[in-house]
Amino acid sequence: MAHPVRTNAKPVHKGNVSEVASRENRWLKRFRAVLAGERGNDGIVGVEGVRMVEAALGSGLAVEALLVSESGQRHLARLGPLLSSEVPVLRTSDKLFASVADTRTPQGIAALVLPRQATIEDLLPGTSLLVVLVGVQDPGNVGTIVRAAEAFGATGAAMCPAEGIGTADPFGPKAMRASAGSALRLPIVSASSSAILLTQLQKSRMKIYAAVAAEAFGMGSENIPKKISHCDSPLLSPWEIDWKIPTAILIGNEGSGLPAELVRAADARVYIPQVAAIVRVGIESLNAAMAASVLLYEAMRQRKAALEKHS
Asked: Are residues 162 and 135 in contact, defined by beta-carbon separation less than 8 angstroms?
């Protein structure tokens, strides 16, 4: 059973520490499965490495157990003040820890954590800024987008499939590492259908922008590729959008982009102009993570400027 972490907890003491010496130990089996990316019905995920474990403990999330190797015990002095005395601390050998670790050079410390449970309604009050990942398959892209969303002040992130293509689990090992712990702090929701999610956003009167690839040589629309020119919705650069109002950004699949019906349903399309000289030498459009980061940064810039103006 998971126990809440208390940030004012006492350092680890002997009463909550136990030794794990067998590869068949139930705790090691659980850590092995979860660190490999398996998700059970309880929603528990695994985090590995001192910074990721520190992020989990510092986020006040429920922690089921902490696993520490012989060489990893040095990290307990740093993490002890964040660790509740109720959380089991399992000590094992470096060899057994390596057998469950997902990284090539493990730091000898891992934890079982219950991420924050959020709903789409939790993300919509006030001047929301939501990034929606639609069929983004690469875990590295998912993690990087989540990291950028937290860094640039987004309300949260939403994951949904597109035309049968699912979005990578933001709490999977690779995505978690790419997010550098942001997935444990930023509210994240998963939707079973992009159409249902879009309807919810529209009912909340959010402005919805579909990120599209446009290899434009300037800011005008005369150079927009024909593959997106059939859409009647406005095509805007990031600085032509008012990001200060409740906004959702749709980021599509790395290869196929957003489904046509989602692009048509959006209030407008947004593209990121590239320098003409770069485009002409064959550089492709920015990938999903880079595009999302640019758009989120512009949103933060505008929102910050508005706050400073009224302060």
From this structure: yes
Tokens 């008012």, located at residue: 242
CA distance 279 to 57: 45
**How many angstroms separate the CA atoms of 19 and 92, rounded?**
6
CA–CA separation, 293 vs 297, rounded Å? 6
Q: Which two tokens stand for residue 17?
A: 């520490």
Do residues 55 and 181 lie in contact, with contact meaning Cβ atoms separated by under 8 Å? Answer: yes
Relative to beta strand 129-134, strand 3-4 is unpaired
Residue type (1 letter), 94: D
Look at the alpha carbons of 120, 122, 124, 130 in this order and tell me if their dihedral is positive or negative.
Answer: negative
Q: What is the pTM of this model?
A: 0.85
Joined tokens for residue 271: 């593209």
Q: What is the mean pLDDT of the chain?
A: 86
pLDDT tens track for 280-301: 555 556 889 999 999 999 999 9
The residue among 51, 37, 44, 50 whose CA lies nearest residue 65 is 44
Integer Cα distance of 188 and 119 in angstroms = 8
Collapsed DSSP state (helix, strand, coil) of residue 291: helix
- pLDDT 10s digits, 126-181: 779 999 999 999 999 999 999 999 999 999 999 999 888 999 999 999 999 999 99
Specify burial of residue 24 (Cβ count, 10 A radius: 0-12, 13-18, 19+). Answer: exposed
Please provide the DSSP assignment of 131-179 as one string: EEEES---HHHHHHHHHHHHHTT-SEEEEE-BTTBPPPPTTSHHHHHHH
Domains contained in the chain, CATH given = 3-114 (3.30.1330.30), 120-310 (3.40.1280.10)
Give the residue with greater pLDDT, 127 vs 117: 117
Nearest Cα residue to 146 out of 138, 160, 154: 154
